[in-house]
Amino acid sequence: MTEMLALSGLTKHFGPIVAVDDISMTIGRGEVLGFLGPNGAGKSTTMKMVAGFLEPTAGTAEICGVDVVEQPMAAKRMIGYLPEGAPAYDDMSVSGFLEFVAGVRGVLASKRNNMIARAVEQTELGNVLGQRIETLSKGFKRRVGLAQAIVHDPDVLILDEPTDGLDPIQKHHVRSLIRAMASEKAIIISTHILEEIDAVCTRATLIAAGKLLLDTTPDDLAARASNHNTVVLTVDSAQSGSLTVALSAVPEIGNVEQIAQDASMVQLRITPKGGESVFTTVTNIVSDKGVKAREIYVERGTLDQAFRDLADSGKSLQAHTENPAESPVEIPAND
Amino acid sequence: MTNIGLILRRELGSYFFSPLAYVFIVIFASITGAFAFYLGDFFGLGQANLQSFFTYHPWLYLLLAPAIAMRLWAEERKSGTIELLMTLPISTTQAVVGKYLAAWLFCGVALLATTPIWITVNVLGSPDNGVIFASYVASFLMVGAFLAIGSAISALTSNQVIAFVVSAATCFMLTLSSLDIVLDLFRAWAPDLLVDTIASISFLNHYLGITRGVIAFSDVVFFASVISLWLFINVIVVDLKKAG
């Protein structure tokens, strides 16, 4: 894997406020890195520094070995950047705007038309090329922002909330586009939509209060959720009492709670003590007791839950590693 | 150079894509004409020259140049496009110069739109066309200086009204710095040397110098220096804001 983006000790202070605090990471070709974090966590500030808009207070950002502060022109040529809110020159037409950006980005005149046509096709802007940008809907404006970011086929793409304001079909389309480009590039996207991490990212990072708390895979992130591997079981209410007692006695089971109830039925959620599945243990007990289960399934941890858990435990988490598989960050168990 | 050209073209385009350009040019041409005929008593003087026409240019520019310049950077900041612009592979100097030249060229076009009065005065009599040409040069340099000031001040704020008012006030001070209205502010406490220096940077004196028909090297250098200085400030302001 070629290293395309290297952040080292990247820090940004705004007066007394520390917006980004000593972030280091490397991103290689083929990786799509998702920046997760609550609003104001420092995601956008980090991206602005990588894109060369803000100067870091300390630390460096290198694009394919070129320092953004020392050689801004060379570095910026290799970057495609979609700023937050997808700003564009409202008084220009879509085609005029893309020609301007392609020109400034140094796309050769001979290739310009082809490159613009490709970006337009990828972002499905063909029908609005002649329209002034200010007349476009939010979804179209976002796609114009995406088109200008990819028009010069950059090695590094930095997309700040690329699907914000898009409808579900457009979201799906943009995610497919990002996946399709991923093998050739190094991509950073920021989002607070967790399903996006699942859908497009190969790496998930969590930033809170300017610190990099976690750098792992989307699957691993989900596994950290307190609801990971919980078993949900629906039984007749007459049998639920004794079953609960029996289940609670099992050492691997941490908690049995009643999550729903009506006249005849009770729904229980069984949370394992470790992260391991207790599905077989539960089914064995259910059949031993002769309980008639109406429904039984295992919940996979959702990113939403993982995100909430991590945000809650936020500051106690300091560790982060290049290779999370070797030394996973310890998440306090939910008890 | 290519980048300056691209920025210039984009900016000029945005003037002419919007009604701004047409409103500005029509109003500029009408008001300069009206001032010449009514306030300047163009016919009453019975002279074949455009002195009554050019006398009022600095005063009109005080109002119109800040109006053109106020949007140069304040609008970019307000709409967020500055983030796009400054992450494109162009230097701050290229962006500043490209934007400035577009505004200056645009005012040049507005100035060209007043040439019918030049033709008129030639039909009516036989004026000294050399003096008129020099006056046009003076007028163009004057508006260039105002625009450079306005551009630099526009980079300080995202509020166009503030940019306009501060630019207009600054231009007013610099234009009239040889008159008592400005000098009295300084006479009370400043040494004579400083007062004399302030008096000597009066835009109006340099402007009137050229409109008499002599494009003196010193006057041209004066305006070129003023423009360069303010564009330099402009670059610093944009870079400083970026670092913060």
Structure description:
The complex is a heterodimer of chains A (335) and B (244). By secondary structure, chain A is α/β, with parallel strands linked by helices. Chain A contains eleven helices and 14 strands. Chain A has helices spanning 43-51, 72-77, 94-104, 109-122, 138-150, 168-182, 194-200, 218-223, 237-249, 279-288, 303-313, and strands at residues 3-14, 17-28, 32-36, 58-63, 66-67, 79-82, 156-160, 186-190, 203-208, 211-216, 230-236, 253-261, 265-272, 293-299. Chain B has one domain (2-243). Chain B is built from 14 helices and no strands. Chain B has helices spanning 2-17, 19-39, 42-45, 51-54, 57-79, 81-87, 92-112, 116-124, 129-154, 160-175, 180-187, 192-200, 203-211, 217-243. In chain B, helix 13 (203-211) runs antiparallel to helix 14 (217-243). The mean pLDDT of chain B is 89.
Give the helices and strands, then pairings.
The complex is a heterodimer of chains A (335) and B (244).
Chain A: E1 3-14, E2 17-28, E3 32-36, H1 43-51, E4 58-63, E5 66-67, H2 72-77, E6 79-82, H3 94-104, H4 109-122, H5 138-150, E7 156-160, H6 168-182, E8 186-190, H7 194-200, E9 203-208, E10 211-216, H8 218-223, E11 230-236, H9 237-249, E12 253-261, E13 265-272, H10 279-288, E14 293-299, H11 303-313
Parallel strand pairs in A: 3-8, 3-9, 6-7, 7-8
Antiparallel strand pairs in A: 1-2, 1-4, 4-5, 9-10, 11-13, 11-14, 12-13
Helix pairs in contact in A: 3-4, 4-5
Chain B: H1 2-17, H2 19-39, H3 42-45, H4 51-54, H5 57-79, H6 81-87, H7 92-112, H8 116-124, H9 129-154, H10 160-175, H11 180-187, H12 192-200, H13 203-211, H14 217-243
Radius of gyration of chain B (Å):
19 Å
Q: Percent range for helical residues of chain A?
A: 25-40%
Question: How many helices of chain B in DSSP terms?
Answer: 14
The main β sheet of chain A shows up as: 6 strands, mixed
Helix/strand/pairing class of chain A, anyone? alpha/beta
Element-level helix/strand string of chain B: HHHHHHHHHHHHHH
- Per the principal axes of the C-alpha atoms, what is the gross shape of chain A? elongated
Structural class of chain B: mainly alpha
Q: How many structural units, i.e. domains of chain B?
A: 1
Poorly predicted residue ranges of chain B = none
- Order of strands, main sheet of chain A, comes to 6-7-8-3-9-10
Largest sheet of chain B: none
Mean pLDDT of chain A: 85
Number of helices of chain A: 11
Q: Give the SSE order of chain A as H and E letters.
A: EEEHEEHEHHHEHEHEEHEHEEHEH
Number of strands of chain B: 0
Which strand-content bin applies to the residues of chain A? Answer: 25-35%
